[in-house]
Amino acid sequence: MKTNPEPSSTRPTVMAVYYPHWHRYDHGQAWKGEGWTEWEGLKAARPRFAGHAQPLRPTWGYFDESGPALAAREIDLAADHGIDVFLYDWYWYSGVRNMQEALEQGFLQAPNRKRLAFALMWANHNRIDQFCPEYNKPRNVWLPSRHSPADLERVIDYCAEHYFSQPNYWRVEGRLYLSIFQAARMVDALGGPAACRRCFATLDQRLSRAGLPPIWWSGMVGKVEEVKLLAEAGFSGVGDYVVATAGKARDDGTEEYTAVMGAHTHRWGQMVLGPLPYLPVVTMGWDTSPRCRPDAPWPVPPTERAYPYVPVVVGNSPERFRELLGSAVKQLSTIHRQPNALLLYSWNEWTEGGYLLPEERTGTAYLEAVREALGLAAPPSMR
């Protein structure tokens, strides 16, 4: 069996964001209470307006994704529908880790793990209470995120031992793919582009001594202007985590998916002109209302909008998602820079309204959209 699956050369590699927050873990229970998981927010979600599809109802129920049996089921479902890589959100705060159980105890222990590759996106933002926080009030900061060359060495040593040495860790041009969520912030914390580039070179030497290849650094960007900074800092490529808005929210607190589709193509057009290879994202949906308190006002006044109290995208459908995916595949076919890949938002961001896992209303229709946009045959179970 292949250990680092690669798609056909005629289609891009398909990555899917994996949000590993659907199990009990010590920090989460210390912050939110014994037995807490983020499923609680999804269960308590309620419709905010006519036709609002809340609460979501996962077909598999409110399952614990940190065990190998459920991970194996996810792997088979993803691989059967054209997904090649799970991009795991990963959390590290000066040596303090949390939410790694889904990857380390689930995916990496699954008997069929070789069917998918995996990679990390270091979610290097402050760990803040964004799970039904008080409306229009300051948020609790649970763990601040800081960067230093010494801490980065610890990060790379841990990743080398636990992840990079795995045969199905995803590589680009033979290099280890590592995505940084707040990339410009990391560059600034390390002392600027030149200092960041020197740090990357030192880390690559460290990996070489461990018998591992260098890193293909990918930076998530908020502004197009950040791409030049990341190029100077030694990043290999850039990407987006999500395109959640076109800036066309209505007074009722909703925004049409068709507008967000247009925002995607506009963003792709901007980013491909930059100095670094761009990995486009395709967003399935956006609805953070399960992370809002049930008694919070709706619609939220524009002057008081702050995550998660932000507009909901409506009108998304498997058919429109497939159309947007087709546009992304077509765009990538005209670009001859690595990685020939796209990112799907998201495999399981249920409380942000981004999910490919089956839900009672749509079943596996969003996964079928992925398979169809790639021109793949139906999996054996559907033939």
Task: Please write out the topology.
Elements: E1 13-18, H1 26-32, H2 39-44, H3 68-80, E2 85-93, E3 96-98, H4 101-106, E4 117-122, E5 127-128, E6 141-143, H5 149-164, E7 171-172, E8 175-180, H6 183-189, H7 193-209, E9 215-220, H8 226-233, E10 237-239, E11 254-256, H9 257-271, E12 278-279, E13 281-283, E14 312-314, H10 318-333, E15 341-345, E16 348-349, E17 354-355, H11 365-373
Parallel strand pairs: 1-2, 1-15, 2-4, 4-8, 8-9, 9-10, 10-12, 11-14, 13-15
Antiparallel strand pairs: 2-3, 5-6, 7-8, 16-17
Helix pairs in contact: 5-7, 7-8, 9-10, 10-11
Short account of what is shown:
By secondary structure, the chain is of the alpha/beta class. Helix content is 31%, strand content 17%.
Structure explained in plain terms:
There is one protein chain. By secondary structure, this protein is of the alpha/beta class. It has a single domain, classed as Glycosidases (TIM Barrel, Alpha-Beta Barrel), CATH 3.20.20.80. Helices cover 31% and strands 17% of the residues. It contains 11 helices and 17 strands. It has helices at 26-32, 39-44, 68-80, 101-106, 149-164, 183-189, 193-209, 226-233, 257-271, 318-333, 365-373, and strands at residues 13-18, 85-93, 96-98, 117-122, 127-128, 141-143, 171-172, 175-180, 215-220, 237-239, 254-256, 278-279, 281-283, 312-314, 341-345, 348-349, 354-355. Strands 1, 2, 3, 4, 7, 8, 9, 10, 12, 13 and 15 form an 11-stranded mixed sheet that branches. A two-stranded antiparallel ribbon has the order 5-6. A hairpin with a 4-residue loop joins strand 16 (348-349) and strand 17 (354-355). Helix 7 (193-209) packs across helix 8 (226-233), helix 9 packs parallel to helix 10 and helix 10 runs parallel beside helix 11 (365-373). The longest helix has 17 residues, at 193-209. The two termini are 23 Å apart. The mean pLDDT is 95.
